[in-house]
Design goal:
Strand order of the largest sheet: 1-2-3-6-4-5
CATH architecture: 2-Layer Sandwich
Strand content: 25-35%
Distance between the termini: 11 Å
Largest sheet: 6 strands, mixed
Shape: globular
Helix content: 10-25%
Number of domains: 1
Structural class: alpha+beta
Order of helices and strands: EEEHEHEE
Number of helices: 2
CATH topology: 60s Ribosomal Protein L30, Chain: A
Radius of gyration: 14 Å
Length: 132
């Protein structure tokens, strides 16, 4: 297992790492809140802005692992307000081509750390050409 870390994504706010690569085949990305990587603060703003920031954080971690959004095979999205599902979809979809969308689960939760409105985690498959 190898830890993956990017200075362009927020530092972990607890006892975990941004991501780990397991046996060179999968990268498991910890839940990403809409934290500004420069300030460590939750991005103020609407759900669309928070989803965009969480996805940008995932993108930074993927890049640190030598991967891209099209390498994601599964994501889980945690929302504090499921009525904003369509807004989430609009922003989330902009990070993928129609042919490259990963499997996904969306769950409403009562609260998220630091008052975030959204948290997104992911699992990426390392292409055979990049397996270490």
């Amino acid at each position: 297992m190898r830890q993956i870390s990017s200075p362009d994504a927020p530092k972990a706010i607890g006892p975990y790492v941004q991501a780990v690569m397991a046996e060179g085949k999968f990268v498991f990305i910890s839940g990403q809140l809409p934290l500004d990587p420069n300030t460590g603060e939750i991005l103020s703003g609407d759900m669309k802005e928070q989803v965009r920031r969480a996805m940008l954080n995932i993108g930074a971690i993927l890049k640190a692992a030598g991967l891209h959004f099209n390498d994601l095979v599964k994501t889980t999205i945690y929302l504090t307000d499921i009525s904003l599902f369509q807004e989430v979809n609009e922003v989330y979809a902009s990070f993928f081509t129609r042919e490259q969308v990963p499997a996904r689960v969306v769950v409403q939760v009562s609260a998220l750390p630091l008052g975030g409105k959204v948290e997104i985690e992911g699992i990426a498959l390392v292409p055979a050409s990049k397996v270490y």
